[in-house]
Amino acid sequence: MKMNAGIWIGIIGGIIGLLTAIVVVLLTGGKTGIYISLAMLLFFAGIFYLFYRLIFKPMLHAARLQKTGFTGKAKILELRDTGVTINNNPQVKLVLEVKNSFGQKYNAQCRVLVSRLHPRAYQPGMEVPVKIDPKNEKNVVIDFSGSAASSQQLSSALNTDTLKAELEKLQEENNAIAASGRPARAIVKKYTWLGAYVNGNNPYVELELEVLPENSPSFSGKARGVMAEASLQKYQPGQEIFVKYDFYHNSRVVLDHS
User: Fold this and answer.
1) 122 and 94 in contact (C-beta within 8 Å)?
2) CB-based contact 177:246 (threshold 8 Å)
3) How much is the pLDDT for 213?
4) Are 170 and 211 in a shared domain?
5) How far apart (Å, rounded) are the C-alpha atoms in residues 27 and 17?
6) Higher model confidence: residue 19 or residue 173?
7) By CB distance 3.0 to 4.6 Å, which of 7, 38, 158, 182 could disulfide with 101?
8) Residues 182 and 206 in one domain
9) Same domain, 53 and 107
């Protein structure tokens, strides 16, 4: 279910109707009308917040991931009823075993509406296409983009061998910069998971940085690397870290682990 024009019209119409009712009560209810208006406002604000948390927020989240998420596949392990129904279509929670483009597996959950015309559309044991959040691999949604073919192509292209080759090349470049580069402080501006784990649960990531050299202007740069699972908090946006950069090509930045 998407946030289409009809849904937005319904939301805006509901807000206008609520505001109109509050104004009418204020104008005709005297002093008592103020309390009635406040009670109406609090009640409907609570209802709207509940609907936002249960319905609109997941829909907006799913729409974002349909555009920006990594493609992957998932096996349905379990199906649970959430108790929420929209236009007689029940919403269910799926417990998934996700397989990303590098063949690595982990468990995640997502919510999805099931058409009342196809009540068995999602069943345990089925394999479904998903989109994976680059910032948090646990955030997944069912892929409705019809990109199953492109997902298969990506899976065949981005396999373990290509990942290994990419990491080896990256390590060579990083070693060269680390040996002769200039040290500096840096602020992490953005953390992006690149869709793979190495040697267990150590994610392969890209960091967008604001590099702060001594006695030189700051500049933007990017660094890629495999982060130890136990150290991930150190590399979140806003954190200060140490890097080395190529003086002649300062966009080339590596993490300083010394």
Assistant:
1) yes
2) yes
3) 92
4) yes
5) 15
6) 173
7) 158
8) yes
9) no
152: tokens are 């298969």
Domain count along the chain: 3
pTM exceeding 0.85? no
> 180-194, pLDDT tens digit by residue?
899 999 999 988 877
Q: Which residue has the tokens 């080759």?
A: 165
Tokens describing residue 179: 């040996």
Mean pLDDT, rounded, for 19-39: 75
Q: Is 16 helix (H, G, I), strand (E, B) or coil?
A: helix
What torsion, rounded to 10 degrees, do the Cα atoms 97, 129, 144, 194 define?
80
3-state secondary structure of 143: coil
Q: Could you give the CA distance from residue 164 to residue 196 in angstroms, rounded to a whole number?
A: 11
pLDDT tens for each residue of 195-246: 777 887 788 888 999 999 988 899 999 999 888 878 888 888 899 999 999 8
Location of structure tokens 């500049």 = 219
**Burial 21-56, CB ≥16 within 10 A → b, else e:** ebeebeeeeeeebeeebeeeeeebeeeeeeeeeebe
Q: Are residues 61 and 141 in the same domain?
A: no
66: three-class secondary structure by DSSP: helix
pLDDT tens digit string along 139-183?
898 887 654 434 443 343 445 677 788 889 989 988 989 888 999
Give every strand in the sheet of 105-113, ordered side by side: 105-113, 89-99, 70-86, 127-132, 140-142
**13 and 80 belong to one structural domain:** no
